[in-house]
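Extended Data, panel c. Modelled sequence:
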Amino acid sequence: MKKYFFIMLLCNYVLYAQDYNYKVDIIDYDYNFLANSGLCGENKHVRLTVTDVNNVTHTVIFTRDPKVEKRKILTKYFEHKPKQIQFSSFIHERSWFSCDGYSASVGKTDILSFNASNIASGFMDLYDSNGGQATIDVSFKYSAEKLKKGFNYKVEYNFDLSNKSKELFFPFDRYKGSYYLKLRSSLQSKRIYLDNVQITNITDPEIIRNKKYDSIIRFISPMEFAEANSKINYKATSSFICDGAVQDENGFVKMDNTRKTVISEVSGCLKHNYLFPYCGSLSINYVNIYRIYDDPRIYSSNSLEKDQKEAFDNLLLKDCQPLKFYVNDCNEESSYAVEYKLETNADWKTYLPYERRASFFELNTANISGATIGKSLKVRIKYYNEDCEKYSYLCNEPLSFSIISCSPEFLALYNQKNYFCSYQRADLDEGKVSVKLSRPIESAEQLVVTLFYVDGMNRKILVNQLSSIPINTSDPIIQFDDLGGGNVGFEWPEKISPTKGTDDYYYFRYQTLNIGESPQKPVESSPFWDSLEKTDTFRLDQPTNISFSARHKKDQSCYGVNDGQIEIYNVNGGTGEGFEYELNGNGTWVPFSTSVNTARNVVIGSLPKGKSRIRVRDGNKCLAKKE
């Protein structure tokens, strides 16, 4: 029969609020003494201490065996603010027969005065020489500094400790077990679990003790690893013993194993969750560790894949589309709450109550009373179920959102106007395209549209960003046409350059914003820009330049008879049809053929003696240009 004793151990995070808040450095410490006949007596010593504001004195250096010491730097950390530093030393020289020789002593106390940067510093230089027989010479610099604890961690676990082996083939008899779990950094350690259990006889009923832990732990340097120890003693009742255990001649097994599990310096995630050495009677139901950042490190993504998550820095929340947020980098369950307040609310309200849940949640305006278009919304994560106003590190910095309506749906591109010639002509309506949308833009909205160009190497290039409300005073504005059926359209108000390579193309991304809000600057690639509405891609093609050749065909047959001929041939480019020529700039354009529109050569007759200047154009009146 199993008996369960569920003991919830919720360590108070306030215990950790002041851990290692101050650092004291002893710099260029140099202690020397001289005693010609050696030292004697119980009063000889070297002592360096620091007293904090609670009048607790902490020893930094103490010895009753003075010797020459030279240390470059010595660092100590303190929970409470240091208020003074004290140094004292005494030596007594031994005479030939007894302790009645010369003595030397030094002592000084400095009050620490912190400046506006929370730093205090000073210098001690102490000397005493009694007739040259006994001498103390000591000097050092010191500095004290208030430390910002920038490494806050959410830590939770749920352990079951049984008096029976958790492995059927490792039965325990006369079993004693103790277990601890510590979190360590280069400067600190924190023990978060310590428990023990014992059984007198293997036939005793099983008793399981459950312990839960939920806390915020604050370090001044990154956590490096979790140290878990299992120390067990038992009488083996099978041929198996635990790895790393030692069995004596009477069948008693002893094991004292420690396992270190790496913690990510950046995210605070455990490398794995099987912390304790194998064997024993402790079972891990869950253990979660992750770092809480000072800045808002909430993530938005449509995927649970870790490498696809990127920091979400856009402060827009659509009223029709929930946003998925990740609370930690480790993609693990943990306890947290989500709170919000609207611009009209003075107090924070609960969006999700404090409880264990998945590492992500969805933020939906439909679940927030009063969250209407145009309102501002603040959201924060509470990592421990206490007052964040009193202990600010329990919550992340609030994220501020502007609530906007969903952008209209893209329906089609229409009225595309390609280029007529190999060059741009101001007299032609070309280089244009229009976009059809599913609904009109409301009076409180603006439509912001960004044009991107993608070249043959798939490089995304920003062309321009325009709006129905001018972003800059010199910008043209987007104007709308009623297309009927509740649909509207707009023509991009600037001429768009022709596409160059055969694989190049354009597309638009757009969003609606509340009037008065500034659009985010476009970037080549980001989760925010990839989430905006996107049109179909399009090209604006341009005919190739017209080229042609001309040659002498026939001279004059007689003096004064204008019957010379020139042939225009090998005509390419342009639209490929409707070619015309002009002779000597006379303004008269003559078709190559009145019956064959695709004619690509012509013989020009009735020419006098001399040179002729020829121009050629196609049916769109596009001229052949020198390249």
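Residues 1-17, 300-313 have pLDDT under 50 and may be disordered. This feature is highlighted in the accompanying rendering.
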